[in-house]
Amino acid sequence: MLDATARLIAVLTERAYAGGITVERVGVGSAGVIDALSGDVISATDAILGWAGTAVTTGLAERLDLPPSSVQAVNDVHAHALGEAWTGAAAGTASSLLVAFGTGVGGSYVLEGRPVLGHRHVGGHVGHFASPYAYRNGQPLTCVCGGSGHVEAIASGPAIAEAYQRLGGQAPGPDARSIFALAAHGDAIAIKVISAAAAAAGQAVGGLANILDPKSSWSPAGSQMPAPHGGGRWNGPCGPNSSRPSPTFQCCLQPWVTPQPWSAQPASSSLQQSSSKGTDHDPVPRRP
């Protein structure tokens, strides 16, 4: 993986030089929990086999013949959120929340131009806290991190595709984008699965927006849970008496599906904790 990344960086650097641009530093956004100081992968799911423990910064610096101080590695969603806060959707705001739904579910809260990383660099790991919607027949859905009942277990792209097939659907494509296309044409199973995922996603984003009170909340266009016009953005507090839009994914689903009853009912208690191989409140993704 590092060899391929170094080759790509070398190609991009040569193109920059050809255009009269001098490249002085290299920044890398990587999946997993990344120590932003050392550039090491603290932990990661099996989406990239053997990725946990990889020294990204040191490894790339050696391959590119650069000093380690010239290479910086951070979590990919933190990097994305920082870019949006700098010159993108959240430019000019003092605080912003980005939640990305794709292969996994990630997030980042940017305050005064800096992503809030937390004590163990796991700040923003939205996918790995409990969701009362991540249950099937009273049992929590298994998450790729080794825990269960997490947001990622119901609202990520692979989780949506898996749920569609589990309910008897035959998806024409390998990921959740094909499920959204089916929902757009009225496929009942696709609508049912997306509605459940949207409930979990909306509750997670809305809860975080109420806790953090960001100036803007954002889901990128590249996410496997799409939003109209290339992205979804909500401003202000959420709630039935709010004069501004609530940060819920129901609004971004409107162009594709008609609201349906959720296919996954919340657990009997909204305070029910997810089970994991660590403590209930430890958000660090764990390998099975």
Summary keywords:
288 residues, alpha+beta, Nucleotidyltransferase, domain 5, 2 domains, five-stranded mixed sheet, two-stranded parallel sheet, 15% strand, disordered C terminus
The low-confidence parts are 225-288
What fold name goes in the CATH topology slot of the largest domain? Nucleotidyltransferase, domain 5
The succession of helices and strands, N to C, reads HEEEHEHEEEEEHHHHEEH
Name of the CATH superfamily of the largest domain: ATPase, nucleotide binding domain
Helix content: 25-40%
**Major sheet:** 5 strands, mixed
What topology, given as strand order, has the largest sheet?
A: 7-6-5-10-11
The second-level CATH architecture of the largest domain is 2-Layer Sandwich
Give the tally of β-strands. 11
As a percent range, the share of strand residues is 5-15%
Structural domain tally: 2
What does the model show?
31% of the residues lie in helices and 15% in strands. The protein has two domains: 74 residues, ATPase, nucleotide binding domain (Nucleotidyltransferase, domain 5, 2-Layer Sandwich), CATH 3.30.420; 176 residues, ATPase, nucleotide binding domain (Nucleotidyltransferase, domain 5), CATH 3.30.420.40. The protein is globular. With 288 residues, the protein is α+β, with helices and mostly antiparallel strands. It contains eight helices and eleven strands.
Question: What is the gist of this entry?
Answer:
Helix content is 31%, strand content 15%.
Write the layout of secondary structure elements.
Elements: H1 2-18, E1 26-30, E2 33-34, E3 41-43, H2 56-64, E4 71-75, H3 76-87, E5 95-101, E6 105-111, E7 114-115, E8 135-136, E9 139-140, H4 152-155, H5 157-166, H6 176-184, H7 188-212, E10 216-219, E11 232-234, H8 250-253
Helix pairs in contact: 1-2, 5-6, 6-7
